[in-house]
Write a structure and sequence with these properties.
This protein is about 40% helix and about 15% strand. By secondary structure, the chain is an alpha/beta fold. The chain folds into two domains: about 190 residues, 3-Layer(aba) Sandwich (Isopropylmalate Dehydrogenase), CATH 3.40.718.10; about 120 residues, Isopropylmalate Dehydrogenase. Helix 2 links the parallel strand 3 and strand 4.
Length: about 325
């Protein structure tokens, strides 16, 4: 058995706490996780079992939602974010990273945060969860993958203005993104020979230079230089023909050039079931592909599908990692 999954609380005024309870009820003992947060922030009447150590989560899960308590500065009202709780949200993420790094947890699943709340309430210095986790792990570069049963897609640039994308893109950035994606497909998805399709930056992938020169000047040459025997790399492809059903059969993941080029197709295909996965970290991290949804928090209207899929993905990847580690131990013992 693998260690349990650490589920961070996210913003306590959002839908994270109520979805944690629903996910616990839906998943049962086959996907054991514990919630890190202030028990006061969970819906009234939630059956909880407070634990002192992550290892207690398995036994506790049969009786209630396992909770590793973390006291916040204030209570929480659904739909009304409180800047006083910003520091607690950050501390919970840091605590989860410490647990997964020590091996007490097998993976981290993060509930949605409000970047504005964290910036205004605690001077948060990062564009989002992904960048903060990379800093905590000491990683120079990580990759955000959005995944569902029908599509895996990676944006090369993430939380920057569209006007800044051409300047931010570089051969080094795109090359690292492709390499990290390929490694993640091998290690976390068990795909020995990954197939990666790369979108162009410009409409029609530049139309031979008529609509932009980046594809001709450096993107296509870079893809040729990166070609290796252990992966199939194609592109640059026109983004408007890369995501229909027949095209998706030809690759295991698509690398897009900017945020919306990647997220629009997956949110159109699987809005309620997409999972955010961070590749390149020294531990497993997943997250539901939605935000805090303050407007519906506490109304029992939020769909738990994405969180359930995120927890299941974390479990699958943790089991695959544990099995690979056991295989390595056996090989070394021969």
């Amino acid at each position: 058995m693998t260690a349990p999954i650490a589920l961070t609380c996210g913003d306590p005024a959002g839908i994270g706490p109520e979805l944690a309870v629903r996910a616990w009820r839906m998943l049962g003992p086959d996907c054991v996780f514990f919630w890190i947060g202030d028990p006061r922030h969970l819906p009234a009447g939630t059956p909880i079992i407070e634990i002192d150590r992550a290892e207690q989560a398995t036994a506790a899960s049969a009786k209630g939602l396992p909770v590793l308590p973390h006291r916040f500065a204030a209570a929480a009202t659904p739909g009304q974010p409180n800047l006083a709780n910003a520091a607690g949200v950050i501390e919970v993420i840091e605590r989860a990273v410490a647990l997964v790094t020590s091996g007490a947890a097998s993976a981290i699943c993060t509930a949605p945060i409000s970047k504005k709340v964290l910036i205004d309430g605690a001077a948060f210095a990062y564009p989002g969860h992904t960048e903060f986790l990379a800093a905590l792990a000491g990683c120079d570069r990580v990759v955000m993958m959005l995944a569902s049963e029908r599509l895996r897609v990676v944006p090369a640039t993430i939380h920057i203005a569209l006007a800044d994308v051409p300047g931010a893109l570089s051969p080094e950035l795109l090359g690292d993104t492709i390499r990290i994606t390929a490694d993640g497909l091998r290690q976390q998805f068990g795909i020995a020979h990954p197939r990666i399709a790369v979108a162009g930056l410009n409409p029609h992938a530049g139309e031979g230079g008529a609509m932009g020169h980046e594809e001709l000047d450096w993107i296509a040459p870079l893809l040729r230089d990166l070609a290796q025997d252990d992966m199939t790399l194609t592109g640059p492809h026109p983004a408007d023909t890369l995501f229909h059903a027949t095209a998706r059969e030809r690759y295991d993941a698509a690398v897009a050039m900017y945020h919306d080029q990647a997220l629009i197709p997956i949110k159109t295909l699987d809005f309620d079931l997409g999972v955010n996965i961070t590749l390149g970290l020294p531990f497993i991290r997943t997250s539901p592909d939605h935000g805090t949804a303050f407007d519906i928090a506490g109304q029992d209207r939020a769909n738990p599908g994405s969180l359930v899929e995120a927890l299941k993905a974390a479990r699958t990847m943790a089991r695959r990692s544990a099995a690979a580690g056991s295989e390595t131990i056996r090989d070394n013992a021969k």
